[in-house]
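During the reporting period, our protein records have gained a structure token line. One record among many is quoted in full directly below:
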Amino acid sequence: MRWQFLVLAIGVSLEKVITNIGDSHAPSLCAVLSIYSQLLEWLRGHALPLWDRHGVDRSSGGYFEALASHPDRGIDATGDVRRGRVVARQLYVFDVGHRLGWQSELVNPVEHGCDYLFSHLHLGEGVFASAVDADTRSPLGGFSLYEQAFYLFALARLQATQAGRYPFEGTARLCLGRLRREYGRVDGGFDESSPATMPLKSNPHMHLLEAALAWMEVTDGASRRPWAELAGEIVGLCLTRFVDPMTGAVREYFDDKWHPMRGEQGRLVEPGHQFEWAWLLLQWRATLPGDDPVAEGCLSAAQRLIDIGERWGVDPERGIAINELWDDMSVKDADAKIWPQTERVKAWCAMLERAGNETEAERARQGIVAAAGGLMRYFLETPAGLWHEVCGPDGGFAAGPSKASSFYHVVCAIEVLRRSVGAHLDMVSPGADFL
């Protein structure tokens, strides 16, 4: 078979796959498998070793903010601040690497980050600093809901793989309790700061939902309840406040009544966030009984968000998702960062998982191929393992370092692709061996 090598490359039982999937959709499925194989090789063979060698600060602790390649002096690491979001995201990155069979040749980067998290960023009783100075390790900045969301997310991942090293679950419960007591709003959601300032933002709430879903995966019974309640609250806020009732698009900035901010801020629509919210809504839907009315609301909202992202947020010439639209779906910012491409991959993966027939599955597979193809355009050939951050309207890539904060997005897309394609293969080829 012309695509035999693609399937064998990622450990799938070829004969079972070919026998069960049929010729009607074998080409598109094998295109997805080929893309996954390339992404897995890039991650395990290039990106993780490079970021392990150069992106982990094994002297002062934590992880560097960015890496840049220079022909004359090799790779430079930058960043004199250790932001909570970067520490949390890099913990996730290396945790995924370990789950996929990669092993560091140096000090374990997950244990390194875990120790740094609890030694310098955790101030006790579930309180985390938003950032610390890399040299003095003094706390920097005030409260940031965004940073707290990523702490909760990282703690869930550590609970699954490092349980016993630190009190991850207890710390997460304390952190959530503090958020509710000190920053919770009577009309739902959370303030961004103390004292409260405007605008309120949908983005940190989106990542709180991501964290809540991660905790739901590693808890059960009474321990799972507060995370399910948090997830349900944020989904409700999204469907009733964040989503514009006229267009179906998620807005970014809101006033203290959860109305869109006046002026330009209130009009912003980010294609990447349309895809990301769709992915999360479909995850939440999968936890609900089939007859739950919220499940249908999540599905219709997610489908509309993906449609908005694809129809207006993807530049047909470049084949990639742009940064920003106005609420009338006209283009505000035609630059295209790398992270919206990863969220587009995840959204189509979620659609593949919930596909009810072959037509829906084929559309999702084609969506994955298009989105992942756009993502891989950002990867640098030399050195392999770094990437461009932004593609301009003319298709050219801006020079600059690769950000550690973007690595999380890329790795999350790869992990979601692995899960979704694995689940899809279980349906079309039961018993196939898929990593």
Summary: The first strand starts at residue 66 and ends at 70. The domain at 45-195 is CATH 1.50.10.10 (Glycosyltransferase). DSSP finds 14 helices and 16 strands in the chain.
